[in-house]
Design a protein that fits this description.
By secondary structure, the chain is of the alpha+beta class. The chain folds into 2 domains: about 1-75, 3-Layer(aba) Sandwich (Glutaredoxin), CATH 3.40.30; about 85-190, Up-down Bundle (Glutathione S-transferase Yfyf (Class Pi), Chain A, domain 2). About 50% of the residues lie in helices and about 5% in strands. The chain has helices at about 10-20, 40-45, 65-75, 85-115, 120-145, 155-165, 180-190, and strands at about 1-5, 25-30, 55, 60-65. Strands 2-1-3-4 form a 4-stranded mixed beta sheet, covered by helices on one side. The longest helix has about 30 residues, at about 85-115. About 35% of the residues are buried.
């Protein structure tokens, strides 16, 4: 397999983390989104949406969208519950991540880390703080009740949410306000096969 991505991206890191946890071999193809690497004709021919991560399977087929890739790679592993309700809860959190979490936490991080907080995006950045804290508060509430997002078993939901949550401070979010999230991050980091972002 080949995985195309930017090592600074949380959406790409999700896949790298999963593959490391599963001890799966793959070839990493580094792209720089700020230099337009995902908008070249060569890349758009592989993914018309011009976004990363992009997984190229051994048979030449492609799969995009980070959580779709996670679901494909983790199917049949202990990270996806066999119980249909619990499996649905995993995907519930993954939809939450893409709809309510990533658009706030990741975009605030992009504005702060990639763009150095330009004046023209200050108002947007401040608005994202409110929405991002709401998402983190929802996670905190769940983690008061259980060690992981779906009960007390580490699952794909945790991988999906961990990617941008553990670097939320890079988008202006102080995780010291969320002690249960901090403890959850440490539990994930103690998993066998864990790898850090950007390495």
């Amino acid at each position: 397999m080949k995985l195309y991505g930017d090592s600074r991206s949380g959406n790409c890191y999700k896949i790298q983390l999963l593959l490391s946890l599963l001890s799966r071999d793959y070839t990493w193809c580094e792209l720089d989104i700020l230099k337009g690497d995902t908008q070249t004709l060569e890349f758009v021919n592989m993914n018309p949406n011009g976004k990363i991560p992009l997984l190229e399977l051994d048979d030449g087929r492609f799969l995009s969208e980070s959580n779709a890739i996670l679901g494909y790679l983790a199917e049949g592993s202990v990270l996806v519950p066999q119980d249909l309700y619990l499996k649905a809860k995993v995907y519930e959190w993954m939809f939450f991540e893409q709809y309510s979490h990533e658009p706030c936490i990741a975009v605030a991080r992009f504005i702060q880390q990639y763009l150095n907080l330009p004046n023209e995006r200050t108002e947007e950045y401040q608005a994202l703080q409110l929405k991002g804290h709401k998402a983190l508060a929802i996670m905190q509430q769940q983690l008061i009740q259980s060690e992981y997002l779906v009960g007390n078993v580490f699952s794909l939901a945790d991988i999906a949410l961990y990617a941008y949550t553990h670097v939320a401070d890079e988008g202006g979010f102080d995780l010291a306000q969320y002690p249960k999230i901090q403890a959850w991050c440490l539990r994930i980091e103690s998993q066998s096969g864990y790898r850090k972002m950007g390495v």
